[in-house]
Specification:
CATH architecture of the largest domain: 3-Layer(aba) Sandwich
Strand content: 5-15%
Number of strands: 9
Number of domains: 4
Distance between the termini: 65 Å
Largest sheet: 6 strands, parallel
Structural class: alpha/beta
Radius of gyration: 26 Å
Number of helices: 21
Strand order of the largest sheet: 4-6-7-8-5-9
CATH class of the largest domain: Alpha Beta
């Protein structure tokens, strides 16, 4: 059956764009095939979702054509044990140097890669799926044109995790690769130290000739460091010309970083730029579930949903809440429940009012001089419809509630909610009055003065 699957993959290669094939089809492996039921295994949940949504019908059709019988396709996620076994069975290069006794090997330079910062541990959602795909593509070498990636996000959104996941993946596939992981500040300090100790030539040789993968974090801290910028730009020129892989991370776009010379700014912008947004409620729930499982602790579903609802700033805040709840439960010997979670959250969340759909309805109704009963009524009068649409638009922008919930809160279907949101978005482009109204309400919500 393995030969049949290889034949199927070969045919699929002709029907799927090369980069998509390398990223999603090539990693698939045949697990079993019995009586027309075929089971494939893929690396992780995100890969499974992508394959099912985009390629499952094509794979099923090709399997049926090659085998001559109707095939039912199922896709499983490879277990950590099977991934480890696969790595252990890879052929070893006989020319590899034997490790010296009692001396651990070091495949990277700079900071240590955190062992949990792998692609398998990264929770993918709508806020980061493009960044994940781009990082995986670069790490897997499945894109012949992509050699650099610029990860953009606020602090605590996962860009360090993705950057280090690239390093882990490359080292697992090619242990001889020289992966350098560091911050821009580390690079600057090392360069200054080299100048002071007359070892600048060794410094240049290290990064230009002995580096295969450069993972450089927090490049915004290069602002104003002219000598470092010049040296880094020259280093990047050499790495780009050699086809080496580079990942930058920053809280600012290259164009927005002040006091950066044009040559370095051009180099930072020359690759793919991918933004990572804050996770939505559903993704925050999955992050908490994933981290609770990893830490071997049981977390009640209602507590997970409570934490996901209250801790919405970034992933680090979620981790802080989870650790706080587990630690307090252990130290006090009390069960994990909502009451315990509330006592932890109140010390983490900023002291600000929580924005809800009800608060938005009251604020908009007051401004337009109508009642909340009017805004949720069946009335189609223009003086009621416009405020209702504005409230739905603001509910979508400032809460994590899905369209179904927003529509239900206004006694409407989700399709009506979607239409209302679209109407306000269009009117903002055409009417300065509507735009100023949105800005007015947004300022009140963002400052807590509602």
């Amino acid at each position: 059956m393995e030969s049949i699957w290889n034949q199927v993959k070969q045919t699929l290669r002709d029907h799927v764009p090369e980069q998509s094939f390398r990223l999603w089809i090539e990693p698939l492996e045949l697990k079993e095939n019995q009586e027309g039921n075929t089971v494939l295994i893929c690396p992780n949940f995100f890969s499974k979702r992508r394959v099912k949504e985009n390629y499952s019908s094509l794979i099923s059709a090709e399997l049926s054509r090659v085998t001559g019988q109707q095939c039912e396709l199922a896709i499983d996620i490879a277990s950590s044990d099977s991934r480890a076994a696969k790595k252990s069975t890879r052929p070893k290069n006989n020319d590899s140097q034997l490790p010296l006794p009692n001396i651990p090997s070091c495949h990277y330079n700079g900071r240590m890669l955190q062992k949990d910062y792998t692609f398998e541990r990264f929770v993918v959602g709508g806020n980061n799926d493009f960044a994940y795909s781009a990082a995986l593509s670069l790490a897997s070498g499945r894109s012949t044109s992509q050699h650099s990636l610029f990860l953009l996000s606020d602090t605590g959104m996962g860009k360090s995790h993705l950057s280090q996941a690239v390093g882990h993946h490359i080292l697992s596939e090619s242990p001889k690769e020289r992966v350098y992981y560091m911050t821009a500040e580390d690079f600057t300090n090392e360069m200054v130290h080299s100048f002071r100790n007359n070892t600048i030539e060794q410094f240049k040789g290290k990064y230009r000739n002995q580096c295969d993968v450069l993972l450089l974090e927090d490049v915004q801290y290069l602002s104003g460091k002219e000598r470092t910028q010049i040296e880094l730009a020259l280093t990047l020129d050499t790495l780009y010309e050699s086809g080496k892989k580079i990942i930058f991370s920053s809280s600012y776009l290259p164009a927005d970083i002040p006091k950066i010379n044009d040559k370095l700014r051009s180099r930072l912008s020359s690759g793919l730029v991918s933004n990572i947004d804050a996770p939505n409620f559903r993704t925050r729930v999955r992050i908490l579930q994933n981290k609770a499982k990893k830490n071997g602790c049981y977390m009640p579903e209602d507590v997970i949903h409570y934490l996901a609802g209250e801790l919405s700033e970034n992933v680090r805040q979620l981790e802080s809440g989870l650790i706080g709840v587990v630690s307090k439960s252990s130290l006090l010997g009390t069960p994990i429940n909502i009451s315990l979670a509330q006592s932890v959250v109140k010390n983490i969340v900023r002291q600000s009012k929580t924005i809800s759909i009800d608060i938005i309805k009251k604020m908009v109704s007051k401004y337009f001089n109508i009642t909340v009963a009017d805004i949720v009524s069946k009335s189609r009068k223009q003086n009621i419809v416009r405020p209702r649409q504005m409230a739905m638009f603001l509910s979508r922008r400032y809460t994590d509630q899905p369209l179904q919930t927003i529509g239900k809160s206004f006694n409407r279907y989700h399709a009506t909610a979607l239409h209302s949101i679209g109407a306000v978005e269009r009117d903002m482009k055409q009417s300065s009055i509507i735009k100023k109204q949105v800005e007015f309400f947004s300022q009140k919500l963002e400052t807590g003065k509602f």
